[in-house]
Design goal:
Length: about 375
């Protein structure tokens, strides 16, 4: 199959980081828009993106895109897609739809029209008469926004944030894709010490370790596209092997953290082991008020409670003040934290050197960076 246009779905604020990753992976014609990044590549390229992208939610194949204001127009758009090139006829056609600010506002009607159009085309073009739908899932998404319809084939299956290592969730864990983005947006670079003083279930530390060890986050999970009839299994296996060969877990060092909740630290230990990182990240049960480290020029990176989901606002603000004291005890360390609390900087006691708006789920947050004074 020749080159196609793909869409990497993104949480708000991560589009630029995903575009940079796609360029690093050698994808062509990379274009960031609100909530998504388009790129061109082969089917095997899309597979490598599923395995490698750290901040992206899902990779879709863009099948068609056009303005549609009526059900007839939607039917014609879906019918024009060469479904016989993508599906054998045995697949279970799972159609989802999302409508916003459009003439077509009924997801259920859009789903059934799309399904009817797909099956009718397959009947005519491939001679299929019955569709047992007992084969692999074929997830088609109809996205309608401001009357523009995008027909998308979901190549990922479950969200790419599900790396597979986190099977037990603590209180308010961070999505893996957002944790990876915090690592990226912080001043930490592999080789420097990294410490999460509120590590919870360990997501930030694990994502940093995966990056330091060149471990692509999707190496140990499967993707919906592996079952598609047009999946180039041989080429994909060769390219995945190259990613496996590039793994260098021995490069992981200097990553550690703590939390005052012993059960959270237990969960973090389990996740570290599930990520294949046993012995590569050190953890302890400790309130951040007691953290003292000997290393210099490191980065504290954390997702403290915000007061909305855990604890109350005043207790959280006192914790933010304690984070400032933690940095005072370690003046060569930078400190980064994400919070939805508009009073964060006031409680911390100074303005952040850098701020970036991000969303933790639906919660609007700021990612604050307070730079340390690096020793040469
Ligand atoms: C929002 S959760 C962090 C979630 C984590 N990023 C994850 O992915 O699981 C905040 C964490 O801060 C911890 N915490 C609260 N007060 C603390 C303190 N004084 N010292 C250390 N940890 C604290 C809580 O136990 C909780 O695990």
């Amino acid at each position: 199959m020749d080159r196609k246009t793909w869409i990497a779905a993104s949480a708000f604020g991560l589009e630029g980081a995903i575009a940079a990753e796609l360029r690093r992976l050698g994808m062509e014609n990379v274009r960031a828009e609100n909530g998504l990044v388009r790129f061109d590549g082969s089917v095997a390229d899309a597979y490598i993106c599923n395995i490698s992208l750290r901040f992206c939610d899902r990779v879709y194949l863009l099948l068609a895109e056009s303005e549609c204001r009526t059900f007839d127009a939607l039917f014609r758009l879906v019918s024009a897609v060469p479904w016989e090139q993508y599906a054998s006829g045995r697949e279970f056609f799972h159609i989802s739809a999302q409508c916003a600010r459009s003439q077509l506002m009924s997801p259920r009607d859009c789903q059934s029209i799309a399904k009817k159009a797909i099956l009718e085309r397959l009947k005519v073009r491939s001679g299929c008469k019955v569709f047992p739908e007992d084969g692999p899932e074929f997830p088609v998404h109809v996205s309608i926004h401001s009357d523009v319809v995008r027909l998308l084939l979901d190549t990922s299956g479950s969200s790419l944030s599900r790396r597979g290592y986190r099977t037990w969730n603590g209180e308010a864990p961070l999505r893996e894709t957002l944790a990876a983005a915090l690592v990226e947006f912080s001043p930490w670079r592999p080789g420097m010490p990294l410490y999460d003083p509120c590590c919870g279930t360990g997501t930030i530390l694990i994502e940093a370790a995966l990056r330091q060890g060149h471990l692509a986050p999707g190496l140990h999970r499967s993707f919906a596209m592996e079952k598609f009839s047009f999946f180039p299994a041989k080429e994909a296996a060769i390219r995945k092997q190259a990613l496996l060969d590039a793994c260098a877990p021995e490069r992981i060092y200097g990553i550690s953290g703590s939390d005052l909740d012993a059960s959270a630290v237990d969960l973090a230990e389990r996740h570290i082991s599930q990520a294949g990182l046993t012995g590569r990240i050190s953890l302890s049960v400790l309130p951040l008020q007691q953290v003292t480290l000997e290393e210099t020029n490191g980065v504290f990176l954390c997702n403290p409670p915000y007061g909305e989901r855990l604890g109350d606002v005043e207790a959280c603000r006192s914790l933010y003040h304690d984070l400032a004291l933690l940095q005072k005890r370690h003046p060569t360390w930078s400190l980064c934290a994400i919070s939805s609390d508009p009073g964060f900087e006031k409680a911390f006691g100074r303005r952040a050197d850098r701020k970036r708006r991000l969303y933790n789920g639906r919660l609007e947050c700021q990612f604050f960076t307070f730079m340390g004074r690096r020793l040469r």
